[in-house]
Amino acid sequence: MVEAEIYLDAAATTPPRQDVIEAVVCAQQEAWGNPSSLHNTGVKAAELLERCRWKLAQRFAVAPDQLIFTSGATESVHLAILGSAASHAPGRIVVSGVEHPAVFAAADQLKNKGWSVVFWPVDAMGLIRLEFMEELLDEPTRMVSLIAAQSEVGALQPTALVGRACRDRGITFHSDATQLIPQGCPEFNRFHSDLISLSAHKFQGPRGIGLLIRDSSHPLVPVQGGGGQEFGLRSGTEALALIAGMAQALSVLPAYHLSGDTIPPGSGPDVRRQRDVLLEALLEIPGLSLLGPNVDQRSPNHIAVLVGSAEGQPIPARAMVRELARRGVACSSGSACRSGQRQDSSVLTAMNIPEPWRQSGLRFTLGPWLDDKTLMQVPDHVVAAQRALS
Ligand SMILES: Cc1ncc(COP(=O)(O)O)c(C=O)c1O
User: Fold this and answer.
1) Does residue 337 have a pLDDT over 60?
2) Confidence at residue 336, expressed as pLDDT on a 0 to 100 scale
3) Which one, 66, 356, 374, 379, has least CB within 10 Å?
4) For ligand 1, what atom is nearest to the CA of residue 201?
């Protein structure tokens, strides 16, 4: 039985901060009313809801009515894509080949409504190939969705650049910023996006709460009906305790100015330095090689490697994850396992990684809960796990 794991899976989820837990408990105890109710209990909840909305809006430098509370990025992405499509005549949606499955699923639903879906090719680093931009943004493209920071390989996409190009052409642009926001909170207008999606549990907030932020002039149609909450765009009684936790979690993230080539500061003051040190140590291990871009185009908490034996034979990353878990290290692999069949990672396939290696992508994602001493144990555990599987 492992006692304390070295938790290196921030891209999957993050441990809630103590102040976040306190904000959740406090809201649940003291503002448990329905914000739509007219009595004092309801008004107390409505006041807290609006305080949280205002606090969150300030962090993104937007008006409070540009924020829509959702159950997380999966829902935000669906509302962004399906809710925007409803205000367009059917056309083409372009999504990168390395999106989260939520984006693929939402885009796929548009096919029933007469839309076509086209994938923006990526290079061997997982970065979109800009030489295709003119062609892809030509008619009949009406919408583009681009992941701001890729979860599996850490690639930071040029969202501001694509956003500006879309805006010039009147194309709706949505950016899935779920993995970017935890590394620092830029102003919304820096994305040059009509819409961005995010999830609180990726930045030490509670699970089951997220945001869709929209440009105030962007037309959006609700995808579910009901009580008309969230300006009529997302019905359902607001998850106030979770919203309070999200507002608290976001309040401690560093601010920065996003532009075409800025690397976010990182989820804690030491995260980027710690990542660099650990990455260097891991790349000294024979059989491991960098997967995804260099640190100048990579999310600051992100490490991804292809893992093979010292002799250069690919090792399935899922087996490495299990071996490392037995040794007290929590990390993750990209390849899925469905119906007992191991599957290649779709991200590594889109990157054209040679076939035998498509199940060998191993990811370590750091957060501010880690210290140097703990991290320096990781390479030894990786070597032990690699030997056990060679
Ligand atoms: C890039 C990206 N988008 C969307 C999601 C979905 O977030 P959630 O599961 O919180 O809805 C995730 C979660 O892993 C993600 O990494």
Assistant:
1) no
2) 58
3) 356
4) 10
Q: Ligand 1 pocket, 151 CB below 6 A?
A: yes
Q: Which domains does the chain have, with CATH numbers?
A: 6-15+263-389 (3.90.1150.10), 18-251 (3.40.640.10)
pTM of the entire structure?
Answer: 0.96
Give the tens place of pLDDT for each residue, 218-266.
999 999 999 999 999 999 999 999 999 999 999 999 888 877 668 999 9
Looking at every residue in the chain, the average pLDDT score rounds to 95
Report d(CA 189, CA 112) in Å as an integer.
Answer: 32
Q: Is the CB of 100 under 6 A from ligand 1?
A: yes
Q: Measured in angstroms, how far is the CA atom of residue 40 from the centroid of ligand 1?
A: 36
74 lines ligand 1 (CB under 6 A): yes
pLDDT digits over 283-313, tens only? 999 999 999 999 999 999 999 999 999 999 9
| Res 2 pLDDT > 60 | no
